[in-house]
């Protein structure tokens, strides 16, 4: 009876340790932690094009939809449409923050063109309209 109890306790301990390990390595948890700490984190499943990518940077959460098309070599992700999940958190964001996000995403999908949705799209268009005046 004592040996059976020890075996059951050992099995329970192994299950608890495994559950904690799964929780700690959960990428969704890492995304939420980075979001609350206002750090950068990119959550994406490269093998599944149907799954949207999620990114957080400086406390703002972004979601992106991937579109597959043909390139000279193969079928690749050719367009990524990005939008802000909560646009009220964009306060203080600058062009450099958006270009940082673009660089990080393009490092994973070099063939892709990034399209921003509203309100970031309008912000980028305003910056591009003002840029020729400075030159």
UniProtKB/TrEMBL annotation:
Domain of life of the native organism: Bacteria
Keywords of this entry: Membrane, Transmembrane, Transmembrane helix
Keyword Transmembrane: yes
Transmembrane segments: 6-24
Full protein name: Sigma-w pathway protein ysdB
Biological source species: Marinococcus luteus
